[in-house]
Specification:
Elements lengths: L3 H24 L7 H7 L11 H13 L9 E3 L11 E6 L5 H18 L5 E7 L4 H19 L1 E8 L4 E3 L7 H5 L7 H19 L4 E6 L8 E7 L4 E8 L2 E10 L2 H11 L9 E3 L9 E6 L2 E5 L7 H17 L1
Parallel strand pairs: 1-2, 2-3, 3-4, 10-12
Antiparallel strand pairs: 4-5, 6-7, 6-11, 7-8, 8-9, 11-12
Helix pairs in contact: 4-5, 7-8, 8-9
């Protein structure tokens, strides 16, 4: 009978062999200065049992945060030396308490600047993350990044990093020749599926109780604030606004445009799966204003709206109110 030590050694060898194969494939996914990042992440001279992959990603994060890149050769987010220079490559890291969507948004902004400054150069976006939200990605970024990749020669590589491994999240090919040969009509089914999901989100919202949103303006404007009730099933909203001159509030009503309602539904649809609970932002600012909302029978409260899922609700309500003001 094999001893535990022999069994563990055999498993370790098999894991190392698989890691070597995956590592070689991943190293071929990027080129240029970003290969150095992958070499640090996939360093096979150290056993994963001695240094978890998530720890390696965190070390890369902290190195950049502490100015490890004295002369930046690619743009980074959320840490790194501030620079107005736009390079051909982008590294985004989503680690621990970081939210994924701001990293994707930063990548989107980088692409728009890079395609203007380096129209004919090869460009690469590499994102290392310990979390992934496929619904949110497909709804907001998937088709947008497809267009950027096909029209502006940008390769996107998303790597999901866990304690014991690194896997590439399936998306577009990293081979630029293969990328150039893709027929854009291939993605028509993806676009139709996305539209179908948004329609489902809208139908779901119509069947839910009214959503509410209230806010105050803090200690120095303690009489200022307001309250909204959004009855999407009826297609109507009611707003009560108050200030020092109208402490009891002024009530206005109106219709919710269908386009704005559909956009709101798509933004918050993922929250339906959360437990019915209270969700609060970690940040607290003395004397600052405070906001709260009730969506899908869940309560949300915030000041800075920095944390998920509060940030999702805050942004969705902000966009909804903007649409109401345009009417």
């Amino acid at each position: 009978m094999r001893t535990y030590e022999e069994f563990a050694q055999d498993v370790s060898w098999q894991n190392r062999s698989a890691a070597d194969k995956i590592g070689s494939e991943l190293m071929n996914a990027v080129e240029g200065p970003l290969t150095g990042i992958l070499e640090q992440l996939l360093c096979r001279s150290v056993e994963p049992a001695q240094e978890l992959y998530s720890m390696r990603m965190r070390k890369i994060y902290e190195c950049i945060e502490q100015g490890g890149l004295e002369a930046p050769i690619y743009n980074t987010y959320p840490v790194g030396i501030p620079t107005d220079e736009i390079f051909c490559d982008f590294l985004g890291i989503c680690s621990e308490e970081d939210a994924l969507l701001p990293v994707l948004n930063a990548a989107d902004k980088f692409c728009k600047k890079a395609m203007a400054k380096h129209p004919s150069d090869d460009k690469t976006v590499l994102i290392l993350t310990d979390k992934w939200d496929d619904y949110a990605f497909r709804r907001k970024y998937a088709m947008k990044f497809v267009k950027l990749a096909l029209d502006h020669n940008i390769v996107f590589v998303f790597l999901l990093v866990t304690d014991y491994g690194v896997v590439r999240i399936p998306y577009l090919p990293s081979d630029r020749r293969a990328l150039r040969n893709i027929d854009p009509r291939f993605f028509e089914s993806e676009r139709l599926l996305l539209e179908e999901q948004e329609a489902l989100a809208y139908e779901y919202l119509l069947k839910q109780p009214p959503c509410t949103y209230s806010y105050d303006c803090g200690t120095w404007k303690q009489f200022d604030g307001g309250y909204y009730e959004f009855d999407f099933g009826a297609g109507r909203y009611q707003r009560t606004s108050r200030d020092a001159s109208h402490p009891n509030g002024i009530v206005t009503e109106g219709r919710i445009p269908k386009k704005a309602a559909r956009k709101f539904a798509a933004a918050v649809y993922e929250l339906r799966e959360l437990p019915n609970d209270d969700y609060s932002d970690r940040t607290r600012v003395l004397d600052a204003g405070h906001s709260s909302a009730h969506v899908f029978e869940k309560s949300f409260s915030w000041q800075m709206a920095e944390d998920e899922p509060v940030r999702i609700v805050s942004k969705a309500i902000e966009e909804l109110i903007k649409a109401l003001k345009k009417r």
